[in-house]
Design goal:
By secondary structure, the chain is mostly beta strands. Helix content is 5%, strand content 48%. The chain has one helix and eleven strands. The strands form two sheets. Strands 2, 4, 5, 6, 9, 10 and 11 form a seven-stranded mixed beta sheet that branches. A four-stranded antiparallel beta sheet has the order 1-3-8-7, with no helix packed on it. Strand 4 and strand 5 form a beta hairpin. The longest helix is centred in the C-terminal third of the chain and has 6 residues.
């Protein structure tokens, strides 16, 4: 089992920045590619970004390219999502996820994650 605990959510003004963290425990962190998802009120959960186990490869959905940055620190068993120029429609619950498969599949939707975090709320005020 892998336990994922996110932190860093909160309220931010439109155009502002926020960094989410996700601490993993339970198994070897570097065995897993990681991703971030979000779910807006009344909408389906969607992928935002993903990163390979080594951190050498990252993937983003088009809507966040150039504004969001996913990274990881395997020594700290933590994955991060740095979000900038946030928009009100990006309000929602943000989930961290781990997969024993390929990070790319987390973005394409070809494979569901093996583990999920509980998700911090991110509110972007207009």
């Amino acid at each position: 089992q892998v336990q994922l605990v996110e932190s860093g959510g909160g309220l931010v003004q439109a155009g502002g920045s926020l960094r989410l963290s996700c601490a993993a425990s339970g198994r070897t962190f570097s065995d897993y590619d990681m991703g971030w998802f979000r779910q807006a009120p009344g909408k389906e959960r969607e992928s935002v970004a993903a990163i390979s186990w080594s951190g050498s490869t990252t993937y983003y959905v088009k809507s966040v390219e150039g504004r969001f940055n996913i990274s990881r620190d395997n020594a700290k068993n933590t994955v991060y999502l740095q979000m900038s120029r946030l928009k009100p429609d990006e309000t929602g619950v943000y989930y961290c996820a781990a997969t024993s498969g390929t990070a790319r599949f987390l973005v394409t939707g070809d494979r569901e994650p093996d583990y999920w975090g509980q998700g911090p709320q991110v509110t972007v005020a207009s």
